[in-house]
Specification:
Its cofactor is FAD. The chain is an alpha+beta fold. It is about 30% helix and about 25% strand. A hairpin with a 2-residue loop joins strand 22 and strand 23.
Length: about 500
């Protein structure tokens, strides 16, 4: 059996999650490779169609958000059970979502990854694996193999990595199914959303001359086999009385409301992220966004372990932090599906929830949840900022005004100190963190929580979440630095 050169990390799957993770690892100098079963990046058909506010912040933290903003359309896309939730008053540089199809999201992420010199082996997938105390042997579908220190499964809901690792995938069985497609039509349909006793359906065309995008709820739960043009024709006739003369499909796929989450995000040297770790109905559009944020949480932690900065046990915090986030996404999504049933009793409930969410406090709470701006990792008691996303403040530094996110472009931790920093000594971590002395005169505000007290110093992890807050003293700083970024280096 011929073998590729050894790699520190192998990522199975080159979708948004796998690409984002590869970029994070490459920024830290980790030798990483992606194995992707598709022969090219743009063979995916119609899937996710937008980025939420927190994901835009994550991309902004890496200095690449402008690429996505230039390709998409900024809109108020946050919603719960198709009830729009305005976030235009939220304290974020991106108080909106971005309408952008997954094809374009992947293309832009792939461009970034290529700039970072990450190799992508296309037309291959993981066929088997064996792990030992030192690494993982990854068998590929063409008979070759890779040896790596760690393997990350970003290979979707049917993840071969998850199955081979023996990680259970409990959850809820599907109750309904949908067909989505891009097709040409003979007869021009009336575009828009249509509701009936079967469910919710939609027809639209993004630009003149492009294929029609179709989403139709099936009368009965469809089989797990790949759908055909005849299946789509029958589904359309059942709803609209005609199939509009559909032909020449670009893509046809079936999805359901099946809801599952991996029991563990880690099994030894094998980790899971994105749809390999959690699947759910696309209502609310949180799937792709959750996967990208998985990657940003995992990337810097895995890089530090590979680079010998922190122990292997530090990877356990990935499951501890991200598993609860996805569990809430699954629960929120199931609640939306329950509210989207089309019978009269459910419609009455939906109308009442819609009225409730028009009130300011419920609107802010659910909008923060759906946009990802309220994610809070449990890092202990303390200042309200602890464990939450760092606001993108406009700071004054010796070099001039600068935004906080600018300091995170290279995915390194940042210690922000406001005022005189003489009492802070981080010499033992000088090569690992960036020390920034700055002034800030404005208020500190978080979604839902509102105004919070101004700290004297803040330690920011590479994923943009706050690991320590100083309130007039440095108590706990050394412990936080050691916990997240390894012990202090010996003085020379």
């Amino acid at each position: 059996m011929r073998q590729f050169e050894d790699r520190a990390v192998v990522i199975a799957g080159g979708g948004p999650t796998g690409l984002m993770l590869a970029g994070e690892l490459a920024l830290a100098g980790v030798d990483v490779v992606i194995v992707e079963r598709r022969p090219s990046q743009d063979v995916i058909g119609q899937r996710a169609g937008g980025l939420h506010s927190r994901t835009l912040e994550v991309l902004d933290q890496r200095g690449i958000a402008d690429r996505f903003l230039a390709a998409g359309q900024a809109l108020q896309v946050a919603g719960f059970a198709q009830i729009r939730l305005d976030i235009s008053d939220f304290p974020t540089p991106h108080p909106y979502g971005l309408a952008l199809w997954q094809n374009d999201i992947e293309r832009l992420l792939a461009d970034w990854v290529v700039e970072l010199a990450v190799p992508i082996h296309r037309g291959l997938e993981v066929a088997g694996l064996t792990q030992d105390d030192d690494g993982v042997d990854v068998e590929l579908s063409d008979g070759r193999s890779l040896r790596s220190q760690y393997l990350v499964g970003c290979d979707g809901g049917r993840s071969k990595v998850r199955k081979a690792a023996g990680i259970e995938f409990p959850g809820w069985e599907p109750t309904t199914s949908y067909l989505i497609a891009q097709v040409e039509v003979r007869d021009e349909p009336q575009f828009g959303i249509h509701r009936d006793a079967i469910g919710i359906h939609g027809l639209d065309r993004q630009n003149e001359g492009e294929p029609v995008r179709v989403m139709v709820t099936e009368r009965q739960l469809g089989p797990s086999t790949e759908p055909t043009l005849d299946d789509l024709s029958r589904g359309l006739i059942a709803v609209y009385g005609t199939d509009f003369g559909i032909h020449s499909p670009t893509s046809i796929a079936r999805f359901t409301d099946v809801t599952r989450q991996a029991a563990a995000y880690r099994a030894g040297r094998i980790l899971l992220a994105g749809d390999a770790a959690h699947i759910h109905h696309p209502a609310g559009g949180q799937g792709l966004n959750t996967g990208v944020q998985d990657a940003v949480n995992l990337g810097w932690k895995l890089a530090q372990v590979v680079n010998g900065v922190t122990p292997d046990t530090s990877l356990d915090t990935y499951h501890d932090e991200r598993h609860p986030v996805a569990a809430r996404v699954l629960q929120t999504t199931m609640a939306q599906i329950a509210l989207l049933r089309t019978d009269d009793r459910t419609k009455a409930l939906h109308d009442n929830v819609s009225e409730l969410l028009s009130m300011d406090e419920p609107r802010k709470r659910f909008a923060a949840r759906m946009s990802g701006l309220d994610i809070h990792y449990d890092l202990g008691d303390g200042h309200p900022l602890l464990g939450r996303r760092m606001p993108d403040l406009e700071l004054r530094t010796a070099a001039g005004p600068v935004r906080v996110f600018t300091f995170l472009h290279d995915a390194r931790p940042v210690l922000l100190v406001f005022g005189e920093p003489g009492h802070i000594d981080v010499a033992g971590w000088a090569k690992r963190i960036r020390l920034v002395e700055a002034d800030y005169d404005g208020g500190w505000e978080l979604p839902v929580l509102g105004e919070v007290s101004t700290p004297s110093a803040v330690l920011i992890r590479p994923d943009g979440h706050v690991a320590w807050v100083g309130q007039g003293s440095v108590a706990g700083l050394v412990d936080a630095l050691t916990r997240w970024f390894g012990p202090a280096a010996a003085s020379t």
